[in-house]
Amino acid sequence: MSRRLAREVVFRALFRVDIGKCRPELALKHSLEGYNFSSAEEQFIRDLVSGTVDNNPELDNLIRKHLVKWELERLSAVDRNLLRLALFEILYRPDIPHAVSINEALDLAKKYGSTAEAVGFINSVLDRALGESFEKES
How far is CA 82 from the centre of its chain? Predict the structure, then answer.
């Protein structure tokens, strides 16, 4: 399995939950259609979806804190959900290097982003959030 493909499935599910107000289980079911993931791969996907959804309030507060002249509600659904996913991985998945989480979010932003500035915007928010995370650890 490509973890990139797995993250794309996770992103699609999160997008459905956010925009379509779809239940996470149903969004995940639809997002998995057409793929033949192993049980371990599917569990990785499920863990990312459920973890991100369960921690949305904390993730959204962190995003708000690091937005400059923006409001969370004004972000595109693509940007908002890519930030949520990357920050969930950074905060709660020590098995995933931070650089991988950021790079995957940026690659998905290139593919799904609504503007050319989306990649730079997501990178800057993640960079500020990650910088704060390192300052707390010191």
Answer: 4
Angle (CA) 88 36 26, round 5°: 55
Give the whole-angstrom CA distance, residue 28 versus residue 50.
9
pLDDT tens string, the chain, 138 residues long: the values are: 588 999 999 999 999 999 999 999 999 999 999 999 999 999 999 999 999 999 999 999 999 999 988 899 999 999 999 999 999 999 999 999 999 999 999 999 999 987 889 999 999 999 999 887 554 554
Model-wide pTM > 0.90: yes
**In whole angstroms, what is the distance from residue 10 CA to residue 7 CA?**
5
Number of helices and strands (H, E) in the chain?
7, 0
Q: What structural domains does the chain harbor?
A: 3-137 (1.10.940.10)
Q: Is 7 helix (H, G, I), strand (E, B) or coil?
A: helix
Close Cβ partners of 125 (under 8 Å, ≥ 6 residues apart) = 63, 66, 67, 83
Torsion of CA 98, 99, 104, 110, to 10 degrees: 130
